[in-house]
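During the practical work, I worked with a single protein chain and the tokens that describe its fold, as given directly below.
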Amino acid sequence: MQFGPWALVLVASIASGAVACGLMAGRRTSFPLLWSAEAVSLALIVLAADQIWTSTHRPDLSIASVAIAVGACAGGYALAAGVLVMTPQRRAHPIEWTFGPETPGTHVVVLSNEEPETYDPGAVTSALARYVEGDIRLPPEVGRPLIYASERGRYRRAGGSTARATVREIAETLQERLRSDRAARSVSAAFCEGGPTLPEVVSGIVAAGGRHVIIVALSAAWSRAFTEAFDELPLGRLAAAGVTVQRAQPLWPSSQLSAMLARRTLEALGDRRDDAGVILLSEGDSWEHARSQEDYREQLVFFVQRVRAELVEAGVPAGRIRRASLWLGEPDVTEAARHLAAVGAHRIVLVPASFAAESIATQTDLPYAAERAQADTGTVVTTVRPWGNDPAVIEALSDAVRAAPTQETHRV
């Protein structure tokens, strides 16, 4: 008996399963190569099975070859899925830190955790790793490629994300504001995942002679993603250069920001408010996050409560205002809508309170949540837009930058 065809069935089937996993998780730009590889693998499987039948003419051996092919495909898929979820988000190349002649002035970095413009499997892997560290239940590894495929589908439906473009606009507007007040020399944008990363931006600042950097998060709360990005700065190596890095407080204390969200909500409610309810949305409110990111959750709660207080002061009944989570935790949007409908609300406004920019979530998940809540309760559900490049956001960031010297200072 010739063992070559059997070995070919085994190897080609493993490759076919692995490529199938790649088709579920990979970028669409890689599809031509992956589909070509899948076609070659399947052709080799058929060729090897045909050789086995031609040389033996035994139905039992042909059936065995098919069984081996199916099992090897499953094994190749499982192997690729295991490697996929263990592969960390790729980082930029090591930075060569240089220090130009010192120039006076403060340099501000707006740090954001907004998603990439296009689908990035590495960003999904990093998010899944944080969920695992937070003891959040996920599907088994063999099922996780479906999460990648779902995320890619969300990007396709939304036509890509504009969130990072909004962050850059905010940084530019903040730079104009701080320069006019002579409070900062420059303002740059950095991102927790992908580029430009915080170390890349800071290295550019110090190479140009900057020695005073303030990092402000474009967020109501400081999450683990921000901590991981901040910890990538080589604190010890830069200490000798005398660079001072100050981490500004996140934006949860901002009265301008909470007032802006309350104003948008009131505009959506209109003059008649006796039959309306409000749901204030945030992310990461699950008990797992509460355990692994207690400060983050507390800051989110404080911020949402500030918005709620603004609405109550404006005349919205406290019993008609509910908190909910768009993704994790309880209550979700539908449950909160049911509660409001039970107390007499016929119109509901969804407010993405902690979402800084228009993103895949606000373009796809939020409308879906609104439609589901509307169908479940029979109420009319509308939404308001996220923060965006609003003057209140610029004021909140400006205040955080000015208050940074009173916060903890890091000599790096």
Remarks:
- The beta strands are 107-112, 186-191, 212-217, 244-247, 276-282, 321-325, 347-352, 380-383, 409-411.
- The chain has three domains: 4-86, 107-252+393-411, 255-383.
- The longest helix spans residues 59-86.
